[in-house]
Amino acid sequence: MPGFSSWDDFIQESTANGKNYRQDWNKNFLPTTPAVAGEWFCLARGGGNPGADALFNTGTNLTFNQVIDTTSNASSIPHGGNVAPDYKYLCNASAFSAAATTMPAVLMLVDMIGYTRVTSTTTTTAQSITNTLTTISNFTADASSDICTHSAYALLPYTKVRLTTTTTLPGGLATATDYYVIKVTDTTCQLATSYANAVAGTAINITDAGTGTHSIQTLYPRYTNGKGVKAFMWANNATPLGAGTPNLSFPSYTNETYTAARATPAVLPVGKTAAANGLILYSGTAAAGKYGPFMPFQSGDSGYGSIEQVQISSTYTSGEFSIGYCKPLITLPLTTLGVASEREFMSQIPGGLPRIYDGAALYWLIYNGAATPTNSAFFGHLDFAWG
Amino acid sequence: MAGFAGLWDYTTQVEDGRGHYSFWRKTPSQTTTSGIWFDMSMSPGNPGPQYYAASPLVAQQMKRSTDGGIFHGPNITPDTKYLKRFLVMSAAATGLPMPFILADYLLYYPFIDTGTNDQQDMDNSLTLPRYTDGNGVQMMAVSVAAGSGTSPTFTVSYTNSLGVSGRTSQPQVLNTATANGSIVTSGTGAAASAGCFIGLQDGDTGVRSVESVTFTSGTDVGLFALVLVKPLITSSLLEQTAPCEVECLPHQAQLPRIYDDAFLSLITLPRGSLSGVAFHGEIETIYN
User: Does the beta-carbon distance from B251 to A344 stay under 8 Å?
Assistant: First the structure.
């Protein structure tokens, strides 16, 4: 059974079996513009170790792109590579800085599962996002048990999927049709015709194995069912956005139970004029419409299954930003210059070992409690273990 | 079986005395700079200092038996040794609070010249003595002769932990710190500055060897050693009245492995000059 069954199991796995990995990191604050106290930034494009990304201002406008740790130019923080069928966890983390005027601050580690680049920042109507699904695994089907066997260890219960084949899908299944996962084990599942049926465990009757090679497709590579998936909008490169303070919203999104036609509620987030490199556009403390770091959900929602539309209520005149889809993992409060913030997750927070999925693309978001100067250096380390 | 089967096994080895305890002291003579990482292995004390002195650009292995470092007990192969507890305290408030990293220093390339734009090729007749695949191994550039503060930029060509050669580090700019032992790429607010470790090429997780160093923009007059280290634990010494103690298993949910003949020392981030400041500490290891 993956994961740790006890402290004894954890100790044996991480010592006798050597299943541990340490990553030291250094990320500099963005090089373009100092922060204003109260703002959130994404440090992906900050220098350091890993270096600045060259990913998030690439790709087709309004098209969702998956991100994994090996995506070219992602420059995410390494975590030791894939470990399936084992489960990897974050055991310990630290962060500190000696740069002046950087404290207090809060660092948030997120797993960035995808992004959508938005270059049409002068369009003020609701703009549709292209959500193309990607194959997460091939699968075979057993008609006697209705079970599909795959290798997508990150495929979570109730995930909405579609199927493709090179020849003929198993009997009872069709292409261009939404199905919902009934997870049996990490590598087996059944399929249901609706989210409600998946929750109820009502599986589709598969009548034969089909012919050819079959594939399961999902939108997200991890956190596939959207539960807990947050979104933020940030200035993704050194060229600042133009003048403008638009309302920013998702006029249409699907939530974590795949209920469609959800929308960002009033009071809508308000973007900052001339938003600088790395700024989360609507973050801040001084006015209505300031949030941080994530876009607010419609009441009752807790995750994005997908985002169908984005809207900028008034033109930004120039520049671009990206929508980041992420799963928040941990926060580290930095209170004092030169004092490390450390968290150990085995015992400090009961049940709090954050899981790190294969392919996780780890980045820091930072809340600036002070006017953080450009290139301010932050350091730290992450300890991982798996079993 | 090396390692521990569980908490009961861990505590049994402790009770059976299968470990080592020792005390250490370091009193830097260098005038360190606030916010600039500093390599304490070059400071006087017990263990004594080492100076990265060897033939220029020729890889030199670092081992406790030949080069010193904090004593962690004898070689115990076929058993496996782990770091159980590490304590640091200071006799003065100067330079505190101070984050630090305890690292296993593996190998260095001496006397890299900051005064030339020519590619400086390394001699890799000797390779990593521990962590031989380079996974998790980081590079740091330690000043052994001060520059004049012209802040040139360099890159490092290296072989990564997968054995792929020709990888290129992030461009690094030298700081203006003059004390020997200063990590010359460290900075608090300069573009292309870094922390204690040189930024690797996207996707890399460690360094197996260094092929060359090239100053791509500007030159200076100093010398530095390029040191390959494996970081083990990180913590902070907050103040004079409060020793920093890391009991690795409960405090950090990790038991870092200590290889036979490991050269252990501290990399620190002081908040001022550490000249004349005495640091004392304890190290406790356990093996099975």
Answer: yes
